[in-house]
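Q: Could you fold this chain for me?
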Amino acid sequence: MYRVLSSEAFTKEGLSPTLVVYDELHAAPNRELWDVMTLAQAARYDALTLAITTAGVRTDSTGQDSVAYGLYQYAQRVAAKEVEDPSFFAAWWQADPDCDHRDPKNWKIANPGFGDIQDPEDFESSVKRTPESEFRTKRTNVFVSSQQAWLPHGTWDDRR
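A: Sure. Below is the predicted structure, expressed as structure tokens.
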């Protein structure tokens, strides 16, 4: 049996889930629900937490690293063997954070289904009408500092 839950963390105290699937973790306003649900699995022998997300803004509504960005950084440390954690697995595709977000080769790098289940024409259309920071998070899978960029990415560097 599964249940879809609201985002109110305090109402989830006392649950003991075997499986937690957290969709679009980057959109979490803070880490409260994540912590409540993952810590609630302590009584389960084979508990599993699955987070599915694209990148988002690095900080949450409290000004701290977002839970998604924190897990992304942790995944990088595990991949680099700086941290040993056999209970943790992450698969992450992203373009280079400093790439030209308008270049189709970068879209393919960040999207394994590009040209198959993701239509290149949709990318070509959306890059023209979507704010750069939003396109970077959703289509090149790169975390950004803010969804409200004052200057386009790289502009300051180009002026030096």
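A (continued): The longest helix spans residues 67-79.
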